Amino acid sequence: MKNILCLIPARKGSKGIKNKNFLNVNEKMIIQYTIDSAKKIKKYCDIVISSDSRKIIEICKLNNLDFHGLRPKKLSGDKAQTIDVVNYELKKIEKKYKKKYKFILILQPTCPFRNLKDLKLAIKKISSKKYDSVVSVKDVNEYHPLRMKIIKKGYLVNYTNMKRENFVPRQYLPKIYIRSGSIYLLERDVLLKHKSLVGNKCFGLVLGGKQALNIDTNSDLIYFKETVGKFK
């Protein structure tokens, strides 16, 4: 029995890029790249798309996926949080299928590039019982916090509490990561009991290059359009 609920959250609104989840790039919608990745691991999971767009009805039909109804308006605005969407969809699907999932996998459409080996590694790690969650991350690179600044009372000062300027070459600075948004895999209890998408025993799945892309700006979209045909 499949014990993973794979959720693809794809609301129609977006401030940065209008309806970006449903834009066509290389003859298919951006969301389709994530659906294609999810279908490669369908033997492990049930795939559900959460959206307030009626386009999702036809998309589900074309991909032989069940349509479970549109997302309510209160979970579709700019201020709607992913955790609330996941909680809503989990309860709805479990009630419909009359089953309880052990794990929840969240694949955001704005991260279109994923390797099958990374998805399988995430499943392997959480199945080992050593971790309660797996989250994809990427190196902050030149945006290292030890180099960041704020303007305070008209003066440029270090963002951290360091009193002296840090001129250590970037390659010698401690590795710092930020969530990439590509993969969130968590135990059901992390969501329901701890009300989080990241557990206390989290495995950091380090991604780089195209796999770390998150389409948030027009520059990201241009990069995606230029590289989509080259990705293997």
Short description:
With 232 residues, this protein is α/β, with parallel strands linked by helices. The chain contains six helices and ten strands.
Descriptive overview:
By secondary structure, this protein is of the alpha/beta class. The protein has a single domain (4-140, 176-230), classed as Spore Coat Polysaccharide Biosynthesis Protein SpsA, Chain A. The chain is 26% helix and 22% strand. It is built from 6 helices and 10 strands, in the order E-E-E-H-E-H-H-E-H-E-E-E-E-H-E-H. A 6-stranded mixed sheet has the order 4-1-5-9-6-10, with helices on both faces. A two-stranded antiparallel ribbon has the order 2-3. It has a two-stranded antiparallel ribbon with strand order 7-8.
Provide the fold topology.
Layout (H helix, E strand, L loop, with lengths): L3 E6 L14 E2 L2 E2 H10 L5 E6 L4 H8 L19 H16 L5 E4 L9 H12 L5 E7 L9 E4 L2 E4 L18 E11 H5 L9 E5 L11 H10 L5
Parallel strand pairs: 1-4, 1-5, 6-10
Antiparallel strand pairs: 2-3, 5-9, 6-9, 7-8
Short key terms for the protein model shown above:
single chain; 232 residues; Spore Coat Polysaccharide Biosynthesis Protein SpsA, Chain A; six-stranded mixed β-sheet; two-stranded antiparallel sheet; 10 strands
